[in-house]
Amino acid sequence: MTDDAVLIDETLAGQPQAFGRLVTKYQDRLFNAITHVLGSADDAQDVVQEAFVQAFVKLETFKRQSAFYTWIYRIAFNQAMTLRRRNRPTVSIDQSREESGEEPIGNEGGPAARLEQQDRVAQVQAALAQLSEDYRSVLVLREMEGFHYDDISEILDLPVGTVRSRLHRARMQMREQLKTVLQEDLR
Amino acid sequence: MSSLSHDELISAYLDGELSGDELASAEKLIAENAESRQLLDELRSLRSGIESLPRHRLDEDFAGRVLDRAERTMVAGGISPAAATSPAAPVAMAAQARDVASSKEPLPEFDGRDRIVRMIAWPAIAVAAAILIMFVMQPGGDDLAPEVAQHEPAELGDDGRNAGEAGAVDRGAEGLAVSDDSLRREGIAGRELASDSAEEFRLDVPGGAGLPRGASVPLPADAPAPRSIAAADREPIVPSSAPADGHGDHGYAAPAPSAIATAEPQTTDPQPAAAERRKDKGLDTLVAAAEIVTATATAEGDDGDELAALGRKYELLVTVQNPAQRRGRPGRALGKVQDLLEEDDRAERDEAETQSREGASAAADDDGSPTLPGTGKQSSRSRAVARPFSSDRDDADRHAQRSDAEGLANKAELAQRVYVLEGARSQVEAALAELTAEATRFGLATVRRGSPPPKAQAGQRAASAGEDAQVRVVIVVAGAADGLVDASPPAATEKPAADARAVPQAAEVEASEETGEGSSDR
Question: Helix, strand, coil: what percent of chain A each, to 5?
């Protein structure tokens, strides 16, 4: 039995603190992914919170045919899409980053290197933000979350073939926009 | 040969999602085609770039907030965002919670989720203010308790009709799923209430707490003051299915509802007068229905489902009145409860203080009563049964418990839901008995105000009418609301069921009634 399964069992047995541990375990990962999907840290926080609340309320309906994180991600993603339909995003990822105040990973090196790294991050973010929502979602799930196609298919309720093709097109679009950056990387 | 384009094949290869022929094709491409190798390298670089994007993190308190929100959702989910139960929750999120709660997904009874509900709801509800108050209203309404008019003038209708009648049910009530119309459509009503055959019970409504605006309760200014109900006058409703041994099927001591009301104090009770006084107050200090409260509070869209189910079972008409009618007056009913508590029981508290000093060290519970699920607390009902109003220690405990409850109540708000059950007396009584039995399991306070007329009288009427008399019962479920969510669950080492017992005490006020006949307007 996995740790998650144990925590779920404990939660269902009346120990909500076990669910708290599940939240703690996955909150950042989920928040990060949803932030990139939505392009707004504030919206993502609301969505993630509500997703966990929903998961708690309906934990008994979790059939455990997938990993808990897959399940919670799907809840969060659906929440995000609902929110997106209700309120089209107005905050860019760049803005979101500034608002959330988070720091890029890989901040080591001298000032020049950091500047270069920040510039590269900004370009990747911009390219990601320009993807359509369908492409961005699948790309985030794959590249940030590391989900397999089957999981992405389940989360997004898409055929695996569609997942693969969308992922491919998303990459091609990103590749085109980041051509200079990518080629510099390869030198 | 793969049907995928070369680029797509490389993309899938990067992800390790190829096998068989596709994998072989990709490997061949990469080996033989420089452009494919270039693409693979660039995609790897792209992956690296995405992975290097800043990681967004949540603060350390996030999990706590999630649990708080979950608690609110499960405790107060049955209340509309406008209601007082969740004022701190953003409206949008409350709406989302409502969406969650109103989902069609089944929520089995008495399973893990319910355990969670009960466990979480316990400190929020039982500790502070969860009260299930049952009013058996007398149609006709010309002789209701004067307290109603005195305390709730704004809530009294001017058309001389009783609660539960037209106008009292807000069909537009947000989040309320049960309406008389819908229930009638579902065949729940079972039978129409014949106005000329309705059995009428008269109850006082102390402080008017729980009467919703629109619940018309006509009251003449010169109405006689209600008189106390002696315990012997009351006929606690005993479920026909209640086990004779007082044990329900849930492992808790669950005596017939009459047990508490009629239990004789133990001979060791040093305060027989006090015990007798309590008894004479006519209080059915029924430990009540966390299950009911939580069931109705769990899901906005499910509000009233518990009672609706009872309605279907017993062929009763169940109507739900709009809890949002309480909007803008949060805490009022709770304040009344507190006032009543203080006025009614000051002397007893003094006694308890004295006894507390003398016997506090012995206050640790050791009666072996069953433990409520997930709470570490014992069933207050079982305690009451084990030592009904009997000992010094009980009084001391009760005082401490009441103090705790008062403190919590001070920061509590009260949300109320009002339900009306109508139907044949025997059916209504059976439904109430079931509610009581469920209540017993979870140790919330149930206070029944007033009482039905003597069964003999009712039976005669029913017999003369050739059928079971029709009655109407107004049930006010007063649940803990915002502010209580901060109440930490009591530690297991605390005095068991303290909070649960405090609430009945808080509502331990003089029950009064006037008996008489009237006619239903329905």
Answer: 80, 0, 20
Give the bridge partners for B476, in sequence order. Answer: B133, B418
Helix (H/G/I), strand (E/B), else coil: B472: strand
For residues B500 and B123, give the distance between their C-alpha atoms in angstroms, rounded to a whole number. Answer: 9
> Above 70 in pLDDT, residue A71?
yes
Q: pLDDT tens for residues B280-304?
A: 332 222 222 222 332 333 333 334 5
Range of the domain at B475: 91-513
Interval A107-135: pLDDT, tens: 455 667 777 777 888 888 889 988 988 89
- Residues B367-384: tens digit of each pLDDT: 333 333 333 333 332 222
* Residue B108: inside a domain: yes
Answer for the pair B305, B61: CB distance below 8 angstroms, yes or no.
no
Instruction: Determine the Cα–Cα distance for residues B205 and A65; give it in Å rounded to an integer.
Output: 53
For chain B positions 295-314, those within 8 Å of chain A (CB to CB) are 298
| CA–CA gap between residue B9 and residue A164 (Å, rounded) | 9
Query: Could you give the CA distance from residue A134 to residue A136 in angstroms, rounded to a whole number?
Result: 6
- Please report, for residues A96, A106, B54, B56, the alpha-carbon distance to residue A103 in angstroms, rounded to integers and kept in the order given: 12, 9, 6, 8
pLDDT in tens, B302-351: 345 556 666 666 666 665 544 433 333 333 444 444 454 455 556 566 66
- Is residue B513 within 8 Å of B451, Cβ to Cβ? yes
Domain with CATH 1.10.1740.10 in chain A: 1-91
User: Mean pLDDT for chain B?
Assistant: 45
Report the residue of A21, A49, A116, A119 to disrupt the B interface, i.e. the one with the largest count of B CBs within 10 Å.
A49
Q: Is the pLDDT of residue B160 over 50?
A: no
How far apart are the C-alpha atoms of B337 and B509, rounded to whole Å? 9
Per DSSP, what are the bridge partners of residue B424?
B470
Q: Measured between CA atoms, how close is A45 to chain B, in angstroms?
A: 8
CATH topology of domain A103-187: Arc Repressor Mutant, subunit A (1.10.10)
pTM (predicted TM-score) = 0.40
B127 and B484 Cβ atoms separated by less than 8 Å: yes
Write phi, then psi, for A103 (nearest 5 degrees).
-105, 145
Q: Which helix (H) or strand (E) holds A45?
A: helix A41-57
Residue B522 located in a structural domain: no
Chain A environment of B54 (Cβ under 8 Å): 97, 102-105, 121
> Where in chain A do CATH 1.10.10.10 domains reside?
103-187
Residue type for position A4: D
The percentage of chain B sitting over the pLDDT mark of 90, rounded to a whole number, equals 2
> Does the residue B1 lie in any domain?
no
Structurally, how many domains does chain B consist of? 2
- Whether the CB of A92 is below 8 Å from some CB of chain B: the reply is no
A1-91 belongs to CATH 1.10.1740.10: yes
> What pLDDT score was predicted for residue B431?
73
Confidence of residue A87 (pLDDT cuts 50, 70, 90): low
pLDDT of residue B311: 66
pLDDT at A39 over 60: yes
